[in-house]
């Protein structure tokens, strides 16, 4: 699993419960305690209003650093975690940083919207939100994007969404229905249910866009 090779593993508050409860299900033939010991977070960060006491105690005994930021009610738990990772990463390394966020999609829509907002608040970082069905990332307007498509893992369905403001000029290649200096906005045209046709999708726009692509099961 990628979690074992990650440089830093951070749980957002109640995410510790999900890790504790669900990680043994991936290894049903193994002792749950052994699995939990092997796949443990380095840090648990957030308001600490969701994580169970038994879970917090279990990971604390394994050396996990629990950081209570309940004094900050203006940012989400995910925001707090991303901020922690960003602060620990030297500026010279941030361009190579990739943050994978699981469990950020599905459930309450306001939580989903808050997590997508984190992509915009940390637009200088490469953050990928992963659900059972798709992944989402922000494509900042600052440069042209070349997206490598691993067809054995993702696709073919995809979409490009201008959230927060219209995109007046968007051009793509590598899609079944490419955009050619096309205007997109909520209340108008959106590129949904599009299909990738090759190994590379290029995107250039005058607005930040949300890129989403389906995950194969």
UniProtKB/TrEMBL annotation:
Positions of the Thiamin pyrophosphokinase thiamin-binding domain: 143-209
Single Gene Ontology MF annotation: thiamine binding
SMART domains per record: TPK_B1_binding (SM00983)
Example GO biological process: thiamine diphosphate biosynthetic process
Main location: cytoplasm
Listed pathway(s): Cofactor biosynthesis; thiamine diphosphate biosynthesis; thiamine diphosphate from thiamine: step 1/1
Known EC number: 2.7.6.2
Family under the similarity heading: Belongs to the thiamine pyrophosphokinase family.
Physiological role: Catalyzes the phosphorylation of thiamine to thiamine pyrophosphate (TPP). TPP is an active cofactor for enzymes involved in glycolysis and energy production. Plant leaves require high levels of TPP for photosynthesis and carbohydrate metabolism.
NCBIfam families: thi_PPkinase (TIGR01378)
Name this protein carries in UniProt: thiamine diphosphokinase
Gene: LOC110788608
């Amino acid at each position: 699993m990628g979690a074992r090779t990650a440089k830093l593993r951070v749980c957002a508050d109640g995410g510790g419960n999900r890790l504790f409860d669900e990680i043994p299900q991936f290894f049903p033939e193994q002792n749950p305690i052994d699995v939990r010991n092997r796949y443990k977070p380095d840090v648990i960060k957030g308001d600490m209003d969701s994580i169970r006491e038994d879970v917090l105690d279990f990971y604390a005994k394994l050396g996990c650093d629990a950081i209570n930021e309940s004094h900050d009610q203006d940012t989400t738990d995910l925001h707090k975690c991303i901020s922690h990772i960003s602060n620990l990463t030297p500026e010279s390394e941030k361009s190579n940083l990739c943050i994978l966020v699981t469990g950020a999609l599905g459930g309450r829509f306001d939580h989903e919207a808050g997590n997508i907002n984190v992509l915009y608040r940390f637009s200088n970082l490469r953050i990928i939100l992963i659900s059972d069905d798709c992944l989402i990332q922000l494509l900042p307007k600052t440069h042209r994007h070349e997206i490598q498509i691993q067809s054995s893992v993702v696709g073919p369905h995809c979409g490009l969404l201008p959230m927060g403001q219209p995109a007046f000029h968007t051009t793509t290649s590598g899609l079944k229905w490419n955009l050619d200096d096309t205007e997109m906005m909520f209340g108008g045209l959106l590129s949904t249910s599009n299909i990738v046709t090759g190994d590379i999708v290029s995107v250039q726009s005058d607005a930040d866009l949300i890129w989403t692509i389906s995950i194969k099961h």
